[in-house]
Design brief:
Blueprint (H helix, E strand, L loop, with lengths): L5 E10 L2 E8 L7 E7 L3 E11 L4 E6 L13 E5 L1 H11 L6 E4 L3 E8 L2 E6 L14 E7 L2 E2 L6 E2 L6 E4 L5 E3 H8 L9
Antiparallel strand pairs: 1-2, 1-6, 2-5, 3-4, 3-6, 4-5, 7-13, 8-9, 8-10, 11-12, 13-14
Length: 190
């Protein structure tokens, strides 16, 4: 079980639609910058961590306009998510992704050399195979797997091709869809 930083709100101020939050952190944040506060049972409020005082463990955050800063309460504690944690929580909690059940099948890829490194790019409807950069080649079935955005499990013919894909092209394995996406649970974070 991973331990996430938690902020206990000690000050809230809303002016002109912007909310400023101050509070005591349970542990230092990974870094200043973009974070999300988890408001149980299933909401995220995006903010920017502006300051953190190491001696007193006090943090100052600016909630993005329109992000629901009014849902925060003085004295309440909220998990602070950043980086992958914030992206995965957003992936799980947002209803906008429009998940569709699918079975992964290898597809063609364009092989491109960039700075001496071989790179494969899956060929989709937006790539014109007749207009690839010089030296690029199409390799049949070279795009042979995807990874679950939540647990990083390989999604392929060998490990298991059953999965779910969002309308944005994000893949999740069947297990993570059942355990986290359907119930809108971010228990994998705690």
């Amino acid at each position: 079980m991973r331990v996430r930083p938690v902020i206990q709100v000690t000050f809230l101020e809303t002016k002109g639609g912007k909310t400023k939050v101050r509070g005591r952190m349970s542990r230092p944040p990974k870094e200043l910058g973009e974070v999300a506060l988890f408001v149980p049972p299933d909401s995220l409020i995006e903010a920017r961590m502006m300051r953190y005082g190491k001696r007193c463990c006090l943090a100052t955050l600016a909630v993005r306009a329109g992000e629901g800063g009014a849902a925060l309460e003085i004295g309440a504690k909220y998990a602070v998510l950043s980086g992958w944690d914030m992206e995965n929580a957003s992936l799980v909690l947002s209803p906008k992704h429009g998940w569709e059940e699918t079975v992964f099948k290898p597809r063609d890829a364009a092989e491109i050399t960039i700075d001496g490194y071989r790179c494969l790019v899956p060929i989709t409807g937006s790539i014109d195979v007749n207009n690839l950069p010089g030296g690029a080649a199409v390799i049949k079935g070279a795009w042979n797997h995807e990874h679950c955005a939540v647990c990083m499990q390989c999604i392929c013919e060998v490990c298991g091709p059953e999965a779910w894909i969002s309308k944005e092209g994000v893949w999740v394995c069947k297990k993570c869809h059942e355990e986290y996406i359907c119930p809108r649970s971010i228990e994998f974070h705690f």
